[in-house]
């Protein structure tokens, strides 16, 4: 929430889809208050990424891959990912992971574990260094235990030696999942942020199905009975959708062909038409059809076309 008279550099859009997304849309709602009324208007702010500038986080020659359902991927290391920046500029490089914010990965989790078998011995020089430099996250795990990692912020070099793996948990799933990370370069002297970059690391899941689009539910009637002039809510008995890879709460219906007369509206402001709505709003009876203001003696049929879209970041669906 911000005031309409916002200052320069006060409101910003941060792109976090490198290198997948080159455009985005942000829905904004404008409020104007008077002594007696409150006026609202919803509009779409379109964002185009002209120069991705995704040149620090670079995918390596080895893809991150899971051999089977419930399997573990190979380790995230310098073969999977590299960070390219000027190391002589006194820049501190850190990587941040917050799965609860990005909701990624969607069909698995990041884990550490599976340490090399055989205990390190203090009478061997190389083993002594292993004990001394053993990271804290590995000291907390057993030799064969897996420990879920949800949130952390570590040095870029440490990130590549943490032994992070992707653990698949939710079949059936698409054959691609993503890990979202944020990188930050900070001047070590002034502590000013030199540059930030966000990226999605793809995870290939073998023997999984290609991502399938959602579809209309065969149980729904797809017919809405409306009386003249009466605002009539839509229900999930009238219209519904389903997707085998995601919960219904993440479905979005986009109106690709509005009715020739009347309009689909949201009950937050039933005087205006809408171009899309969520399954959650549909389930809560917040989506309705407003018939035209003219009367007719005979029954009339109107057709509305909807495309069901997946409202998530893990997969791209049509």
UniProtKB/TrEMBL annotation:
Pfam families: Cadherin_3, Frem_N. Residues 2-181 form the FRAS1-related extracellular matrix protein N-terminal domain. Keywords: Glycoprotein, Metal-binding, Repeat, Signal. CSPG repeats lie at residues 213-307. GO terms for biological process: anatomical structure morphogenesis. GO terms for molecular function: metal ion binding. InterPro entries: CSPG_rpt, FRAS1-rel_N, FRAS1_ECM. This is FRAS1-related extracellular matrix protein N-terminal domain-containing protein. It comes from Scyliorhinus torazame.
């Amino acid at each position: 929430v911000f005031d309409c008279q916002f200052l320069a550099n006060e409101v910003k859009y941060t792109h976090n889809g490198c290198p997948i997304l080159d455009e985005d849309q942000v829905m904004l709602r404008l409020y104007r208050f008077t002594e007696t009324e409150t006026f609202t208007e919803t509009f779409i702010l379109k964002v185009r990424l002209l120069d991705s500038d995704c040149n620090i986080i670079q995918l390596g020659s080895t893809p991150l891959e899971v051999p089977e359902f419930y399997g573990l991927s190979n380790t995230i290391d310098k073969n999977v990912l590299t960070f390219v920046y000027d190391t002589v500029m006194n820049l501190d490089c850190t990587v941040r992971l917050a799965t609860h914010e990005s909701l990624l990965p969607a069909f698995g989790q990041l884990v550490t574990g599976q340490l090399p078998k055989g205990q390190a011995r203090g009478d061997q020089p190389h083993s002594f260094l292993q004990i001394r430099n053993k990271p804290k996250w590995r000291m907390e795990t057993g030799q064969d235990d897996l420990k879920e990692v949800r949130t952390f912020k570590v040095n870029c070099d440490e990130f590549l030696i943490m032994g992070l793996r992707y653990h698949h948990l939710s079949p059936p799933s698409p054959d691609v999942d993503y890990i979202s990370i944020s990188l930050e370069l900070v001047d070590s002297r002034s502590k000013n942020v030199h540059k930030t970059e966000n990226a999605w690391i793809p995870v290939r899941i073998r023997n999984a199905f290609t991502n399938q689009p959602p579809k209309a539910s065969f149980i729904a009637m797809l017919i809405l009975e409306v009386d003249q002039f009466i605002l009539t809510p839509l229900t999930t008995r009238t219209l519904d959708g389903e997707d085998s890879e995601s919960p219904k709460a993440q479905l979005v219906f986009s109106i690709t062909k509005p009715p020739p007369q009347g309009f689909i509206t949201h009950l937050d402001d039933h005087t205006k038409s809408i171009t899309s709505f969520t399954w959650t709003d549909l389930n809560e009876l917040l989506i309705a059809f407003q018939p035209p203001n003219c009367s007719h003696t005979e029954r009339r049929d109107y057709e509305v076309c909807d495309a069901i879209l997946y409202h998530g970041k893990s997969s791209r669906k049509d």
